Amino acid sequence: MRIAFTTEVAPPKIDGITNRLRNTIPCLLEAGHEVLVFAPSGADATLGGARVVPIPGPAYPRYPGLRAALPHPRLALELARFRPDVLHAVGPVCLGTFGVLAARALLVPTVASYHTDLPRYLPLHGLGFAEQVAWPLIRAVHNRAHLNLCPSRGTQSELEAHGIRNVEIWRGGVDTELFHPRRRSLATRACLTDGRPDRPILLYAGRLSPEKNLELLLPVLKGLPGCHLALVGDGPARADLERLFAGHAVTFTGFLAGEQLAQAFASADVFVMPSPTETLGFVVLEAMASGVPVVAARAGGIPDLVAHGVNGLLFAAAAPDAARAAVREVLDDRPRARFLAEQGRKSAESATWKRETRDLVWAYRRAIRRARRSLLGGIRHALVG
User: Fold this and answer.
1) How does residue 133 score in pLDDT terms, banded at 50, 70 and 90?
2) Is residue 382 pLDDT above 80, yes or no?
3) Is-contact 212 274, C-beta < 8 A?
4) Residue 89's beta-bridge partner residues?
5) Check: CATH 3.40.50.2000 for 181-349?
6) pLDDT at 66 exceeding the cut of 90
7) In the chain, at which end, N or C, are there fewer CB atoms within 10 A of the end residue's CB?
8) What are the tens digits of pLDDT across the range 218-243?
C-alpha cells in the first residue's frame, strides 16, 4: 500500500504527534508499505525512514517549532506523482486541510486523525477570539475525510458530539524495550534532584505550556516536604514556571530523548500528569512501561489508560488537594506503589507499536472501501439523475 501523510509538526520538534509518526512509519515500512510525508518547511529530510516533502509557510512566533504551511502547488504535484492508495492527515490544521482537499480532488481515499484539543488550547495562548469558529472549521475538515481517527473514547465522544462522523480509535503505543524498569539509575536520580538522590522524585515529562496546568504541582510540592519535582521538557511556559517554582525543590532538565528520557522515567518514584487537555497522553504510557506509579488528572483520554486503583491513581482535574493526597498515598504505601507499577507495566506491554500499526492499516482499508462505495454511489446517482 502507498500511504501519504500530512502533518503539521515533524522532527526536530518533539511532541506526541512526532512521537506517533516516528514509531508508526518504521512499522509501516517494515511491513512493506511505501510512505511519503508532507510537513512544514524546516522539518528533517526524513521521518521514521520516509522521505519528507517540505511545504513553505511562516513560523508561529508564540510557539517555537510550529509553522503554518501555506497552499502550495508542490503538495498536489507530489501527491499526484506518488499516487497514494490513501492519504492520512495527522492533526489537520493548515497543511492537513490542503492535503485533504487535494486528495479528494485526485479521488484519493482520505483519513484524518485528531490528536490536539485545539479549541481548549486557544484561550490559553491568547487566541480566545478564535474559539467560537474552531469547532465548525474542525468539523468541516474532518467530515471531508472518509474515516476519522482519535486516540481515546473520551475524545471520540467529544468529536461525535460536535457533529464529526465516522470516528474510530487509533490509540498509539509505547516502546516497552526502551521504556523499562531496568533503566533506573542512581546517577540519573542525582541529576533529577540536583545531587539529592535520596529524595522522593515526582516527575513530569512533556511540553511546558499553559494547557498542561503545571501550576497545580506547586501546592502539591509544598504539601510534601522533602520531595523533589523534576520537570522534563521545554516549551513556551518555561520562563514563567521557573519564576513560579523559584526557591522550591524543582529541577528543569530541558528536553530529553532516547535512553536519557527512559532513564529519567524509570528513576522517578511517581509520575504526575496534571493536564486536563490530553487526548491520550503518551508520557503516561511511557511512565507505565518504565515501572513508575502514575498519578494523573481524570480528564481527556487519560482514563482510557489509567484505571483508578488498578494501574494508577486518578484525581479530579484542577484539584491540588486531591492530587497531593494521591501522590502521598503512593509514597507512603510502598507495597501499593509496587502493585500499581507492576499493573501499569502489564498495561503498557499490551500497547506495542506493531499491534497499533497493524490496526491502523486495517483502518486504511476500511477508508478505501468507504471511498469506493461513495464514488460508485455518486456515479449511480449521476447516471440515474
Assistant:
1) confident
2) no
3) yes
4) 6, 112
5) yes
6) no
7) C
8) 999 999 999 999 999 999 999 999 99
Each domain of the chain, given as residue ranges in start order, spans: 2-173+353-384, 181-349
φ/ψ of residue 276, rounded to 5: -95, 10
Interatomic CA distance for residues 187 and 97, integer angstroms: 46
Could you give the C-alpha distances from 240 to 122, 214, 246, 251, 275, in angstroms and in order? 18, 11, 10, 14, 17
For the segment 71-96, what is each residue's pLDDT rounded down to a tens digit? 899 999 999 999 999 999 999 999 99
Distance from C-alpha of 8 to C-alpha of 160, rounded to nearest angstrom: 23
